[in-house]
Amino acid sequence: MDFFTLIQVLDATVRLAIPLLLACLAGLFSERAGIFDIGLEGKMLAAAFFSAAIASMTGSVWIGLLAGIGASLFLSGIHGLASITFRGNQLISGVAINFLAAGMTVLIAQSWFSQGGRTPSLTGAARFNPINFPGALTTTNEVKAASPLMQVYSELLSGHSLLVYVALLLVPLSWWALYRTRFGLRLRAVGENPAAVDTAGVSVVGLRYAAVAICGILCGIAGAYLSTALQAGFVKDMSAGRGFIALAALIFAKWRPWHALYATFLFGLFQALELRPDVIESVIGIKIQSQFLGALPYIMTVVILAGFVGKAIPPRAGGEPYVKER
Amino acid sequence: MSTAEPAIELKGISKAFGPVQANKDISIRVMPGTIHGIIGENGAGKSTLMSILYGFYKADKGEIFISGKKTEIPDSQAAISAGIGMVFQHFKLVENFTVLENIILGAEDGWLLKPSLAKARKSLIDLAAEYELNVDPDALIEEIGVGMQQRVEILKALYRQADILILDEPTGVLTPSEADQLFRILGRLREEGKTIILITHKLREIMETTDTVSVMRRGEMTATVKTADTSPEELAELMVGRKVLLRVDKKPPQVGEVVLNVENLRVVDEQGVERLKSISLNVRAGEILGIAGVAGNGQSELLEVLGGYADGTGTVTLNGETIDLTGKHSDGKSRRARGIAHVPEDRQREGLIMDYTAWENTAFGYHHDPAYQSGILINNAAIRKDTEEKMERFDVRPPNPRLTAKNFSGGNQQKIVLAREIERNPDLLLIGQPTRGVDIGAIEFIHKQIVALRDQGKAILLVSVELEEILSLADRVAVMFDGNIMGERAVGDTDEKELGLLMAGVET
Amino acid sequence: MDVMPKWAEVILVPLISLLLAAILSGLVILAIGEDPIAAVKLMVKGALGSTYGWGYTLYYATNFMFTGLAVSVAFHARLFNIGGEGQAMMGGLGVALACLFIPWPHWTLALLGAIVLAGAFGAIWAAIPAYLQAKRGSHIVITTIMFNFIAAAVLNYMLVNVLRPQGSMDPATARFPEVVHLPTLHDILGMVGISFSKAAPANVSLLVAMIACILVWLLIWRTKLGYEIRAYGHSESAAKYAGISPVKITMIAMIISGGLAGMMAINNVMGEAERLVLNATEGAGFIGIAVALMGRSHPLGVFVAAILFGFLYQGGAELALWTSIPRELIVVIQALVILFTGALDNMVRMPLERIFLALRKGNV
């Protein structure tokens, strides 16, 4: 394998890891506040559809992004209503949201566009287009011929859409918000012991809704990225289990922002390699089944959950509705 | 602050939970710079009243005045702004946060944590000096003891500039010496002009620390008196509504062979903490051995390991035959098969399935009994009939086997458990906190049943945190402290004072 | 305290939840520019108006009975088995192996053998997450989700690389031999002189599913094991006190649950497709969640809910055929049923409890 191939694989890793990272951070805010969310998948899917649909109608990806975030926030609202206000089962609510999104996106897509559950292809300002850094080479042949450093600069660092850089910035930002601000202190506290927050005179409900809303916004961006940056339009079930891989990454990262970055990039690498079986074969000399690579994030999560490699301890009040008691 | 205005005045507070009236038309006045006790049995409505004052529950009726000003307290935030701080019975601390983080939670200055933490660290030093409340600000809550955690709770309130401090059963988890220390701190706070409300069901604490005391019974306030003008006997009578029988009538024991013999019993919990260090004791036929001690000193673990649902090491024999303490033959099922019955400490979490009917609960743990089977199926009718008979003998009300456990009162729930365990005619009865949360009438009945079982020549191991209960029921008493037995006495040869010292870990 | 009478708990609450789900579904149909009344009429006609329709409705219902029972049994032990889909996939693998590699002399024996293998494969797939939960404390919901994906990967590998007949481009097994063909309702009812559509896939598995309903009912409410499963589901601490092993109950409940989910494959793989294809389960494992929630985890409730969902599935297919409403409408309905009967249960329950409390006070 030559250096350029490596750069290409890493470049694909970045592209594929970004939606995982956004969804993983989304889950992180929600679960740190004590609200389990297995509906990341559904929120991403809904956002992917509405971003693409509205972007194609208005011709503006920004309005599309807002619509995507709005759709995701709407589903977050349902999750909040079920799990915070009505103290329902958070897991069941998540399942319902996933199905709601899976069904509604196709239903509405069919009703609006009549293209078998897709949106029209997006072009121009209806997409997030690559941003090329100053001096970066753009054609594959040029890059291939350039020096290794230039290859890294042009292919790996430059040429991604705006959302990629936003997502990467969100990692330190999330860390800072969680560990260096009042909001973060309260958010972490409410996921560990909501009674402590309540008796300290802070609204548990308010904090948890805030967390669920942040989760909605981030899932919205993740979904918009899928349909307006990674792809050019929405297709049925396009989230393809990414919400669950993000969930796996969250466990893998033990609910910490920087580790979320590492975990999602690792899982992104698996996805990138799944597309390039030739690369693996040339590196380790044996053929690895693509199905195995696809399942690897799930297998690794099961292993880590079982505590064979370090123990993943979720926030203590996670999944439990808060009921006041003395 | 003028001394004429009460620091707190409650007028006509009422609160119902569904059909249960927890507080009925309660009025109370507490003067500033005093310690006011509120005493009453479990379930008398003390904690509900204080939770209303702290904005945890909303009263259905009534008014609250703070320093003479009518104040609405819809939530804890309002209570804190009104200068009220509360130390709950179960601490409200974030376990994996530091002391400092817990103290600023909800009382931060501004968006950023750094300045808040710095400010809190400084005030903490001042508060520590002022009230002898030393804690390590950077220690994690999960790594400090309960006494220390309680200090953090008090500091939380003081950091929020509370003038009124409510403590709900603060000594339940403390040793007597830790409790004394707490009361010294409360004394200091009173000197500084703070108003303190102390909720407890322990008469001794009321008599020793308070200036005035209110008595609650079944949701009503039955009296408010100056502590100096009353006596423990009078308070006890006000609490329960009639003279309490402090001693159960019983004959001298007809002691027989050793039934249960325990040697070097050791229990280590999942966190690796040694809960029982090396316990040795025995119980003979026809006697009651009482285990006294402050809650959390290993009594629960002793019952659990003897009851078969915690692992241990050491030698335990029943009627001379060894009992497995780990592995396949160490569970509740095999213990029952060996003739050990167990009335657990917490009937709602262990003794009963609250969503099961009375008849399903009567089979609980004995559901393998051949009398309850027909072929491979369970014979529901047989269990129901058995339950009906047991309910009648134990005067369970209402005597309806199809009613769900949660629909019975505490006393009747306990009778269902007791009937199930005693009627099995066991060689050994393990019984923990037999009358916790049980009304007076049922207490007497339950005590009589326990003594009657003893008089049939059965061995009984009684665990209770109520020293009075131990002294009135047991023939011998062993005191547990920190996973050890501090000493063993015949009930006739000891008194509360000596036992109290043993409970605090002091050799006598 | 019980605030509500039992009939309200068992019938009124689910009925109102269902009504809410139905109203919202109607609004969805309106929103996409179709007539809900006409849609319902079309669904009823398509799913229940002919023996052909019934044949499909009952075929789908058979799947949902198995998966609904699977989720219910786990629910009784307070375990949320979200992995019915993966367990049903593995069950399909079991059925395929049984039918392809064992020379059965008669379909009855083949059916028995397939039930055993399908159940065993599903049970194993549930037993691993159960073991990890019981012994290692891994959250069973997360592990069963992960196992769904792993099952899909395993199935994909087996169909593409191992079981695919030479020369075939289709990721599917060869067709099962004629001898393992299961009698359809047409064959069975024909014996007693009732004519039933020959084209519909409902088959003898329906009877197996109904027997499973009865057996699960007996298990949960009439055996010691069921008593222990429910006790553990209500209170783990009390179960320990009574000598009921949490590890044992978690394992057994999940093995039964996985076994039931796996057994679904006798219907869709052996009874209908007669070969194993990639997406054989078609989400039936997930519909089991909706069915169990709606049926309040009671086998009779599961039976009724499964038939309702069978109707929705077949009716939805008819809608997709004759109108511009896509099949995904049933996914939306399924989501709404899960939402209202599961997650938003308290939204229905709280006001009802207030009403009953007020009524009771009025009487006193």
At a glance:
Chain B has 508 residues and is of the alpha/beta class.
Describe this entry's structure for a reader:
The complex is a heterotrimer of chains A (326), B (508) and C (364). Chain A has 326 residues and is mainly alpha-helical. Chain A has 14 helices and 2 strands, in the order H-H-H-H-E-H-H-E-H-H-H-H-H-H-H-H. Chain A has helices at 3-32, 40-58, 61-85, 90-113, 140-145, 148-157, 162-180, 182-192, 194-199, 204-230, 242-252, 257-275, 277-284, 290-305, and strands spanning 130-131, 160-161. Chain A has a two-stranded antiparallel ribbon. Chain B is an alpha/beta fold. Chain B is 33% helix and 25% strand. Chain B starts with 7 loop residues before the first strand and ends in a 5-residue tail after the last helix. Chains in contact: A-B, A-C, B-C. Chains A and C meet through helix 3, helix 4, helix 11 and helix 14 of A and helix 5, helix 6, helix 13, helix 15 and helix 16 of C.
> So how many helices of chain C?
16
Enumerate the spans of chain C where pLDDT stays under 50 for 5 or more consecutive residues: none
Order of helices and strands of chain C: HHHHHHHHHHHHHHHH
Helical content of chain B (DSSP H or I, runs of 4+): 25-40%
Q: Helix proportion of residues of chain C, in percent?
A: over 70%
What is the number of domains of chain B? Answer: 2
By CATH, the superfamily of the largest domain in chain B comes out as: P-loop containing nucleotide triphosphate hydrolases
Which structural class is indicated by helix and strand composition of chain C?
mainly alpha
Strand order of the largest sheet of chain B: 6-7-8-3-9-10
